[in-house]
Specification:
The protein is mostly beta strands. It has one domain. It is built from one helix and seven strands. It has one helix at 10-22, and strands at residues 6-8, 29-36, 53-60, 68-71, 77-80, 92-98, 103-108. The protein has a five-stranded mixed β-sheet with strand order 1-6-7-3-2. The longest helix has 13 residues, at 10-22. The radius of gyration is 15 Å and the shape is globular. The two termini are 15 Å apart.
Length: 120
């Protein structure tokens, strides 16, 4: 997926900027969105309010060979590993999945009835 077919909601962008600013980045790392399917306490119980989603974290840049890239409105590029096959002719939206846990959703944007998926 190229960066031109993603968009981000204003509220998700504000949260994402806070999450990126709070992420410690080491040598050879960059901030990326990584999918979290669960978050449990020591008793293996899902924490209240948790919903699966993508979280901002430091990731080694040399380990992102097949990752997708979203471009934020300020031009920042953000790599992420898609949890599903993403079509190049479909638009996607980044939104908040869990504000309490700083997680994001990346979902296809439904097309109006009768419209083709072409971005052209």
């Amino acid at each position: 997926m190229n960066s031109s077919n993603t968009q981000i909601t204003d509220r998700a962008l504000a949260l994402l900027r806070r999450e990126i600013a709070a992420t410690k980045i080491g040598p050879g790392e960059t901030v990326a969105l990584v999918y979290f399917s669960e978050y449990v306490d020591r008793d293996r119980k899902t924490l209240d309010g948790f919903r699966p989603g993508y979280g901002a974290m430091a990731w080694r840049a040399d380990q992102m060979h097949d990752w997708r890239v979203a471009q934020l409105p300020d031009g920042t590029t953000l790599p992420f590993f898609a949890r599903f096959k993403m079509a190049t002719d479909t638009r996607y939206s980044i939104d908040i999945a869990s504000d309490a846990f700083g997680l994001f959703s990346i979902d296809p944007i439904p097309l109006p009835l009768g419209r083709s998926a072409s971005l052209g």
